[in-house]
Design goal:
With 425 residues, this protein is of the alpha/beta class. The protein has two domains: 205 residues, P-loop containing nucleotide triphosphate hydrolases (Rossmann fold, 3-Layer(aba) Sandwich), CATH 3.40.50; 152 residues, P-loop containing nucleotide triphosphate hydrolases (Rossmann fold, 3-Layer(aba) Sandwich), CATH 3.40.50.300. Bound molecules: adenosine monophosphate.
């Protein structure tokens, strides 16, 4: 199948061509015609599947065909959980709309609102936003959502996971009832299904990979290892394997910093990204990683949300996540767009129950290896790390935010309980 057969205008095809895309990805093949028909969609798609173009291309087509009003009210709204993802979606929208008379803007927290407000005032067709900053500006009457025709919820599972459910509901109440809704999520929990039920209108389910499955192109491996030997093992794997671009996940911010320092000390260029890093530091780390001046990016789950790192060859779980779905998200960063990738997990005795839960979710046993000199500790307890000993989120409360104390885009301050659970991530 080619892009030409999807019903997109020549100006959009020209931009797609400029990006070097030749064939629409599976999600694009399925979603684009449905969106052009005006259907609501509920799409299961991970980052790396081409989902952004999957909703942006038909959205641009519809907006450019529609009637343009002189004052350019915002006609499409894309909500994303993080500023990084918002910036990425915005860059994609800009690239795909290069040959169209369509204007867009991105707004997120953590930076001065003035330039964002000025761009909106000049008139835009598409707004990409994180929920907190959008509600801030709306409360100040600086943005009007009364003419939204297309509403996109990107990475909906992340949104709920980060405590944005209330904000999403508030935003939905601010936009017109008659509109087209597009919901994208990598995993489908009960909460996502409920949200979809509440606000989508006869949605068409678009699935490209089975629910909660991990992509076939990803080779997965578990190294059983003593906790105290993990750092040595990861340094060995990276150095001896000559791995060039490695994304490493740790469970805590401190763990990310510690590991990053040890990597640097052993001559492997590394940077850490997590919630305590400023926006500038995160952007710098990410761009260094993308242009290969930084070999290893050590990240916590929240910081890594939605990062667009194309064709990532190696993902390492330095520690397994205690939420099994996070494993699917983490390793979804490799083997992208048909390229093969490797996801390895360093698993110590106390992570045994996490491994079991992950294998149950993905439906198969991950092959296990033990490296000589880095054996597991036979005397270590297989008891999981207790709540409070380490940062752990409680999945059962993850979508029940209490009082919003701050409009921090990341949602980390959304409620005390989440704060306690999230504070180390
Ligand atoms: P996304 O899943 O939207 O984050 O996209 C992942 C990556 O795939 C991005 O770097 C896109 O530029 C790229 N991409 C999107 N669509 C295509 C396509 N049809 N062919 C090749 N690459 C694509």
């Amino acid at each position: 199948m080619s892009f030409n057969s999807l019903g997109l205008s020549s100006a959009i095809l020209k931009a797609v061509n400029k990006q070097g895309y030749t064939t629409p990805s599976p999600i694009q093949q399925k979603a684009i015609p449905l969106i052009l028909e005006g259907k609501d969609i509920l799409a299961s798609a991970q980052t790396g599947t081409g989902k952004t173009a999957g909703f942006t291309l038909p959205m641009l087509q519809k907006l450019s065909e529609g009637q343009k009003l002189r004052h350019r009210p915002i006609r499409a709204l894309v909500l994303t959980p993080t500023r990084e993802l918002a910036a990425q979606v915005y860059n994609n929208v800009k690239a795909y709309s290069e040959f169209l008379d369509i204007r867009s803007a991105v707004i997120f927290g953590g930076v001065n609102q003035k330039p964002q407000v000025a761009t909106i005032r000049n008139g835009i067709d598409i707004l990409i936003a994180t929920p907190g900053r959008l509600l801030d500006l709306q409360n100040q009457n600086l943005v009007s959502l009364s003419k939204i025709e297309i509403f996109v919820l990107d990475e909906a599972d992340r949104m709920l996971d980060m405590g944005f459910l209330r904000d999403i509901k508030k935003i939905i109440n601010l936009i017109p009832k008659r509109r087209q809704n597009l919901l994208f999520s990598a995993t489908f929990s009960k909460e996502i299904k409920k949200l979809a039920n509440d606000f989508l209108y006869h949605p068409v389910l678009v699935e490209t990979t089975p629910e909660n499955s991990t992509a076939d192109a990803i080779e997965q491996k578990v190294y059983r290892v003593a906790k105290s030997l993990k750092t040595g093992l990861i340094i060995k794997l990276i150095s001896e394997g000559n791995w060039k671009q490695v994304l490493v996940f740790t469970r805590t911010k401190h763990g990310a910093n510690r590991l990053c320092k040890k990597m640097v000390a052993s001559g492997i260029s590394s940077a850490a990204i997590h919630g305590n890093k400023s926006q500038g530091a995160r952007t710098k780390a990410l761009s260094g990683f993308k242009n290969n001046t930084i070999r290893v990016l050590v990240a916590t789950d929240i910081a890594a949300r939605g990062l667009d790192i194309p064709l990532l060859p190696h993902v390492v779980n330095f520690e397994l996540p205690n939420i099994p779905e996070d494993y699917v998200h983490r390793i979804g960063r490799t083997g992208r767009a048909g390229a093969s990738g490797e996801a390895v997990s360093l698993v110590s005795a106390e992570e045994t129950s996490y491994l079991k839960a992950i294998q149950k979710l993905i439906g198969f046993k991950i092959p296990v290896e033990i490296i000589e000199g880095f054996e597991p500790d036979p005397n270590a307890s297989t008891e999981p790390i207790k709540q409070g000993q380490r940062s752990n989120r409680r999945p059962q409360n993850s979508n029940k935010p209490k009082k919003n104390k701050s409009s921090d885009h990341s949602g980390n301050n959304r409620n005390k309980k989440r704060n306690r659970n999230n504070k180390n991530r």
